[in-house]
Inverse folding.
């Protein structure tokens, strides 16, 4: 009960309220530990009695679990430690029913070392640094423009909520039944919370223009050496590299190794420029790291 009360307290989101004294939620003078949007999601989860299942593909020992596909059936491989005579051994395996590779183990070293070699081959030449910088700058400009449009849409949604609040307030004044008044007040509280979430999202929606240089630096670091980030990073960083470096999960054959992967757009452009046969694609399709 104590934990539930703590989770429901909006003070940790930087807001204050006192229903006992009819003080609705409002921005406090302190900095929240979490965003109000996250706080609202917690409340929705608690009220709906939802339970968030733990990810089955999350394992510190197997960063590519759930990302590498079986080449025969195209389904995600799983991974686990297998007990030997004297110690445990790490293996990846396909567990899809009906697949001819079902239950046939592949050494973790074969999967992960092969993946590292693919990343190593994707590193562009140093001469392409200026080209990559220009690509990222254009993509950043496009993202700023998209963010501004999204911000306007959020503002329109907030105006719609404000109209609903005004209409409900009029109904509260005109209502003669205490039951109706209580129902209207409950609806007003929900709308006020939705409005607070929108206000917070509007404030942080557009990426700061001052961070363009920082974004370019991070993106160039990733594009220049994804294998280095993969090698030195932890479990989360390795999974992020896998998602950013390839357009789709990679397929692995127990007999032939990795199939030709579909690399992500930035690496495809840099490879095309290096080969001299690239048809340029609008920069807004370039994925930027999230800061």
């Amino acid at each position: 009960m104590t934990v539930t009360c703590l989770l429901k307290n909006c003070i940790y989101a930087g807001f204050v309220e006192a229903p006992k004294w009819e003080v609705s939620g409002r921005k406090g003078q302190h900095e929240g530990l979490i965003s109000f949007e996250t706080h609202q999601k917690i409340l929705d989860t608690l009220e709906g009695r939802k339970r968030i299942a733990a990810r089955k593909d999350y394992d510190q020992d197997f960063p590519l679990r759930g990302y590498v596909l079986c080449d025969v059936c195209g389904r995600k491989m799983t991974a686990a430690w297998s007990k030997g005579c004297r110690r445990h051994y790490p293996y990846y395996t396909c567990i899809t029913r009906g697949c001819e590779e079902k239950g046939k183990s592949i050494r973790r070293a074969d999967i992960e070392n092969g993946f590292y070699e693919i990343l190593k081959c994707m590193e562009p030449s140093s001469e392409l640094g200026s080209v990559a910088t220009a690509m990222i700058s254009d993509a950043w400009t496009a993202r700023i423009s998209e963010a501004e449009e999204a911000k306007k849409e959020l503002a329109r949604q907030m105006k719609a909520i404000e109209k609903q609040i005004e209409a409900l307030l009029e109904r509260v004044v005109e209502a003669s039944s205490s039951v109706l008044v209580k129902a209207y007040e409950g609806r007003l509280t929900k709308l006020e919370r939705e409005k607070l979430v929108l206000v917070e999202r509007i404030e942080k929606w557009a990426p700061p223009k001052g961070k363009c240089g920082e974004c370019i630096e991070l993106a160039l670091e990733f594009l220049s050496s994804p294998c280095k980030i993969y090698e030195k990073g932890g479990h989360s960083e390795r999974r992020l590299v896998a998602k950013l470096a390839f357009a789709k999960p990679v397929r692995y054959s127990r007999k032939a190794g990795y199939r030709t992967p579909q690399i992500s757009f930035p690496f495809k452009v840099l490879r095309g420029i290096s080969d001299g046969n690239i048809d340029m694609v609008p920069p807004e399709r370039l994925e930027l790291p999230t800061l």
